[in-house]
Amino acid sequence: MVQTNQYKGNDKLLFGIILGVLAFWFFAQTTLNINVVMSEELQMNTSMMNIAVSITALFSGIFIVVFGGIADRFGRVKVIKIGFVFSIFGSLLVGITPIGPLATPVLIAGRILQGLSGACIMPASLALVKTYWDGTGRQRAVSLWSMGSWGGSGFCALFGGLMAQNVGWRYIFFASAIVSIIGLLLISGTPESKAVQTNSTRKFDFAGIFTFMIAMIALQIFVSKGSDLGWTSSVSLLLILVTLVFSIAFITIENRISEAFIDFRLFKNSIYTGATLSNFLLNGVTGMLIVSLMLMQVGGNLSAQEVGLLTLGYAIAILAFIRVGEKLLQRFGSRKPMIWGCIIVGVAIALLMPTNVMTGTYKLLAVFAYTLFGVGLAFYATPSTDAALSNLPDSQAGSGSGIYKMASSLGAAFGVAISAGIFTGLSGAEIDWLNQVITFAGRQDNLSIRQAAMIALAFNLLLVVIAIVTILFSIPKETGKIIKSK
């Protein structure tokens, strides 16, 4: 194997990696906006479509630590290539999803493969960046990598709406497969990179991975399908039981072995715990996107393209302000920018909550809200990451960063699933007490949909409040602050 210190990363490799990141954040995440169009064409139940939307982030979150460890042990380039293969086949499955009874299994399978692709590419590519670039070259590579992930997530709704309206949603995923093929070709010939193995007998925690996966999937199905199944039905109660039993089994297993899938010792560090938990919660606020975008399509009769255009401010803001978060970290430390970011996100949600106004007014509120959402996330992102990782010893940096990224994906998965579940579950009937408190202007035939959206958005606001409280109690004021010498 070529020694890593003899090889320097180049733009060919870097752009290949970025294409892999975009396949997940830019192409796969378009379902946040086009799910309404997809469910109508495929004749799929709304709750099953909600599962299809959120399951990609769920599987990415579950397996990101796993594939990060596999990459370190067996080769990062190998794992990235596997991720591209997952992306190609997953994207094609989604693109060719048939209409009718086979729609659900084919679409779910494709979305799972897309999630596994992200779990492979994200940790392995970051490890390659750290290994094959240094100094200012590494900073540039990290910035471009971040723009691929944050920029991709920012523009995905706009891109998805434009494609669905003018070309057809299936071509989004055909394009994703082509981009993945190009990325695979660009990284070909890259020397392999592995971590230095201090323990060649290290074993994978298959029992921990399995129990964690079963618990998370059961919880996801319960959250997404509960309103259809009945929250107290025998199937729902069985799903709750499976979640509890496998969660207890997972915790028991992880506390008994030395090479655990998730090292609970990391959470003895209160700063790391606070940053990771608030990261989970703030990524959960992604649910505000699917609720507001569905509301405007289902309740306001807007097209996917029209609502996608409203998110342009979100994409621009997150790219424009992400370096501002870095500067705020250096001047004020982690705590204040994290809190400011959360407050701005909270204001964004508050602007989306007045679903009682007319559609024209709501569209204006949405433009401001999505822009503020991007600013808030940009303020929060770098300070939170720095707080989580800079306070860990080198021996725990790898597993700590993996769990932190896992919190991002799982937060988004459950935030989307719960928010969509609340919206779908409540949109079938009017909520009398809310109608007595708030007057809903304009059309009344969509009243239950607007009420359901208001409550689902209130859930997202609650997540922000809990995130702020978590930061206040766990992140010291001077964390991450650069103290200038006199």
Any overview of this molecule?
Helix 11 packs parallel to helix 16. The chain is built from 18 helices and no strands. The mean pLDDT is 87. It is globular, with a radius of gyration of 22 Å.
Key phrases:
486 residues, mainly alpha, Growth Hormone, Chain: A, 3 domains, 18 helices, 0% strand, MFS_trans_sf, transmembrane
In short:
Keywords: Membrane, Transmembrane, Transmembrane helix, Transport. The chain is an all-alpha fold. It is built from 18 helices and no strands.
Query: What is the number of beta strands?
Result: 0
Cα separation of the termini? 48 Å
Biggest sheet, in brief? none
**CATH classification, class level of the largest domain:** Mainly Alpha
| Spans where pLDDT lies below 50 across 5 or more residues | none
Q: Tell me the CATH architecture of the largest domain.
A: Up-down Bundle
Number of helices: 18
SSE order, one letter for each helix or strand: HHHHHHHHHHHHHHHHHH
According to CATH, the homologous superfamily of the largest domain is: MFS general substrate transporter like domains
The total domain count is 3
Which term fits the overall shape?
A: globular
Return the average pLDDT rounded to an integer. Answer: 87
How much of the sequence is in beta strands? under 5%
**Integer-rounded radius of gyration:** 22 Å
Kindly report the CATH topology of the largest domain. Growth Hormone, Chain: A
Residue share in helix: over 70%
Class based on secondary structure composition and strand pairing? mainly alpha
